[in-house]
Design goal:
23 helices, 3-stranded parallel beta sheet, alpha/beta, single chain, 552 residues
Length: 552
C-alpha cells in the first residue's frame, strides 16, 4: 500500500514538482537497469518492454498531465495515481489487443513511480548494490523471474511454502531460501549482518562472533565438499552395484541451462515453460517460443529435453493473462485446462516445440492430466499443430515422444488405462502430494500434513511405477522430493531409474547414490511400504541412511 494516501492536497506545489522530478529520474534509472538485466538474463526481446516503459516515462503529454495536477495543488502521488489511472482506463477500452495490453505497462510504471514517491524500496526489481539476503513478505514466481540473481545470496520470506514455485526457481538457481518466517520483515533492517542457513532453517540477525566463526568453518567445509562433488560431475550416476540412474535437471529460465550443465545434468526432465513467460509483457509469438526452446535444446548438446506445455494458474500467474478470481486456484482453472480452453495459444506452443525438436531430442509433456479425455484432446491439438506446420512448409520433428504428468490422484488411479496412450509418465510429486493429502503446497499452516513420506504417497508412487514398467513406458520423477536423500533412497528402491531435480542437487545425489546398492534401496522400499505411519517410515529411513553413510 502507499503511505501517503491521506495527503491528497499538497502544501506546496513547488515541492511536489521537485519530488516528481526526482522520482522520474530515479524511475528512469531503475527502468534502464531493468532493461539491461533482463536482456542479460533472459533475452533482448524480453527486455524490450522496459524500453517502452522508458518512452512512456519521457512522454510529454503523460508528464504534462501530471504536472497540471501539481499546479492545481494536488500531491505528486495523487497526480500520478490519477493520470496513470486515466491511461489504464483508456487503454483498457481499446479494441486493439496490443494497445489493450499497454494498460498493464501503465500499471507497472505507476507502481514503480508511486513506490519511489513513497520512498519505498523498489519491489518490481531488486537492484542491490552489493550482494545481500533478500527479506520480503512474500516472493512470487514473477518476482523471481526478474530479480538480480547474482546479487541475491539468499531469500527469507514471511509467507510461502518450500514447494512454492518461487522457491523452486530459487533452488534451481542455487539460491538458498527460507520461507514462512513470521515477523521477519519487521525484525530485519537493511545493512544489518545476517546469516542464512537454509539447510537447517535458521536465520541469524546480527549474529555473535561465535556464530559467525562457526559458519565460517561450515562454509569452508562446504567448499571442500563442493570440490569433492566436482569429481562426480563427469562420472555416470550409478548405485554401488552399478545400476544406472539418470539424473536430469528441472529448468525454467535460460540462466538455468548453465547451472544445469555445470552440475552434470543429463538433459532436462522438466522444462517449465511458463517461467520465462513471467518476466515478459505479453505472450511470445511462435518464433519467439521456438527460439527460446531451441536455445535450451542446443544448450544440452544431444541430451533429451522434456518440454512441458504451459502450467499457469495455481500460484503462477502471467502479468498479461490475468486469471479469474477463484476460491481454490489449485483446484481450479489451471495448467492444461487453461491450454485446452485457449486452443490457439496451446497449438502455437506445440508448434514451437515441434519446431525446436528439429535441433535435438525433445519430448513433450502435458501437465495436470486427470483422464483419457484430456489425453485425447491434447493429441488432437498436436495433430492440428503438425498439420498447420506441414501446410506452411515449416520444418518440424514428426515423432516427438508424448508424456503426461501424473500429479492428479485420478490419473494415478487409472494409470493402467492411461499408459497405453502415452510414451512416458512424469511423476509430479509436488502437486500429487498436495492433492493426495489435501495439503496446499504453499500453506505453512498445513506444512506438517504435506509429507512426501506419507504412506499414501509411497503406495501411489509404487503403483504408478509398476504400471509404467508393465507397459514398457518410461517413468521420470520430477518433483522436489527427489532432492532429499531419505526420499531418494526409497524412490530408487521402488524401481524408479530416472529423476529430474533442481540441478544444484545433482552432484550430491550422485555421490550419495554411489554409496548404496540397489539391493539396499529395494530393502528400504519393501520395509517402508508395509508401514502405516509417516513418522515410522521417516525414522526407519534415517536409520538406513546413517548406516549407508557410516559404511561409505
Ligand atoms: C510437480 O507438480 O511435481 C511438478 C514437477 O510440477 P510443478 O512443481 O511445476 O507444479
Ligand atoms: Mg505440478
Amino acid at each position: 500500500g502507499h503511505a501517503d494516501i491521506l495527503d491528497e492536497e499538497a502544501a506546496c506545489p513547488e515541492e511536489e514538482h521537485r519530488r516528481l522530478d526526482a522520482t522520474l529520474e530515479k524511475t528512469r534509472i531503475q527502468t534502464l537497469f531493468l532493461e539491461k538485466r533482463v536482456a542479460e538474463r533472459l533475452s533482448e526481446d524480453d527486455a524490450a518492454i522496459f524500453h517502452t516503459h522508458l518512452m512512456i516515462l519521457e512522454d510529454r503529454s503523460f508528464l504534462d498531465k501530471i504536472r497540471r495536477y501539481l499546479d492545481q495543488g494536488v500531491s505528486a502521488s495523487h497526480a500520478v495515481k490519477r493520470v496513470v489511472g486515466e491511461y489504464i482506463e483508456a487503454f483498457g477500452r481499446m479494441d486493439d489487443p496490443y494497445l489493450r495490453e499497454r494498460a498493464a505497462d501503465m500499471e507497472d510504471i505507476g507502481r514503480r513511480l508511486l513506490g519511489n514517491l513513497a520512498g519505498q524500496e523498489n519491489h518490481v526489481l531488486l537492484q542491490l548494490k552489493s550482494p545481500g539476503i533478500l527479506v520480503a513478505r512474500e516472493i512470487l514466481p514473477s518476482d523471481m523471474a526478474c530479480l538480480d540473481h547474482e546479487q541475491v545470496r539468499g531469500i527469507v520470506t514471511e509467507v510461502g511454502e518450500r514447494n512454492s514455485h518461487a522457491v523452486i526457481m530459487a533452488k534451481s538457481l542455487g539460491i538458498p531460501a527460507l520461507v514462512g518466517v513470521r515477523g521477519v520483515t519487521r525484525l530485519a533492517v537493511s545493512d544489518k549482518n545476517a546469516i542464512l542457513d537454509a539447510n537447517s532453517g535458521c536465520f541469524y540477525l546480527n549474529p555473535t562472533v561465535r556464530i559467525i566463526e562457526e559458519y565460517r568453518r561450515l562454509e569452508e567445509d562446504c567448499g571442500r565438499e563442493l570440490h569433492r562433488l566436482d569429481e562426480f560431475r563427469d562420472l555416470p550416476a550409478e548405485t554401488r552395484d552399478g545400476v544406472r540412474i539418470i539424473l536430469r535437471a528441472n529448468v525454467g529460465l535460460v540462466s538455468d541451462i548453465d547451472v544445469a550443465t555445470r552440475n552434470g545434468a543429463e538433459g532436462v526432465g522438466l522444462y517449465r515453460t511458463e517461467f520465462p513467460y513471467m518476466a515478459r509483457s505479453d505472450f511470445p509469438d511462435r518464433e519467439d517460443q521456438y527460439q527460446l526452446y531451441r536455445k535450451v535444446v542446443e544448450g544440452f548438446a544431444g541430451h533429451p529435453v522434456t518440454i512441458r506445455t504451459l502450467d499457469i494458474g495455481g500460484d503462477k500467474a502471467l502479468p498479461y493473462f490475468t486469471p479469474p478470481k477463484e476460491d481454490n486456484p489449485f483446484m481450479g482453472w489451471r495448467s492444461v485446462r487453461v491450454s485446452l480452453d485457449n486452443r490457439d495459444i496451446f497449438r502455437t506452443q506445440i508448434e514451437a516445440i515441434l519446431m525446436a525438436a528439429t535441433h535435438g531430442p525433445v519430448k513433450i509433456l502435458f501437465p495436470m492430466i486427470s483422464g483419457l479425455e484430456e489425453i485425447d484432446a491434447c493429441k488432437k491439438v498436436m495433430e492440428e499443430a503438425r498439420q498447420s506446420l506441414r501446410r506452411e512448409g515449416v520444418p518440424f520433428a514428426e515423432t516427438v515422444p508424448f508424456g503426461v504428468m501424473i500429479e492428479v490422484p485420478a490419473a494415478a488411479r487409472i494409470a493402467s488405462m492411461l499408459a497405453p496412450e502415452v510414451d512416458f509418465f512424469a511423476l509430479g510429486t509436488n502437486d500429487l502430494i498436495q492433492y493426495l493429502l489435501a495439503a496446499d503446497r504453499n500453506n505453512p499452516l498445513v506444512n506438517r500434513y504435506y509429507d512426501p513420506l506419507h504412506p499414501a504417497v509411497l503406495q501411489v508412487l509404487n503403483e504408478v511405477t509398476r504400471v509404467a514398467k508393465r507397459f514398457g513406458k518410461g517413468v521420470c520423477l520430477c518433483g522436489e522430493m527427489a532432492s532429499d536423500p531419505l526420499n531418494f533412497l526409497v524412490l530408487v528402491g521402488l524401481g524408479i531409474r530416472e529423476f529430474s531435480m533442481p540441478s544444484p542437487f545433482i552432484p550430491r545425489t550422485k555421490a550419495f547414490l554411489r554409496d548404496f546398492s540397489s539391493l539396499t534401496a529395494r530393502k528400504a522400499a519393501r520395509e517402508v511400504l508395509v508401514m502405516g505411519e509417516t513418522a515410522k517410515i521417516r525414522s526407519h529411513l534415517i536409520k538406513m541412511v546413517k548406516e549407508i553413510e557410516n559404511i561409505a
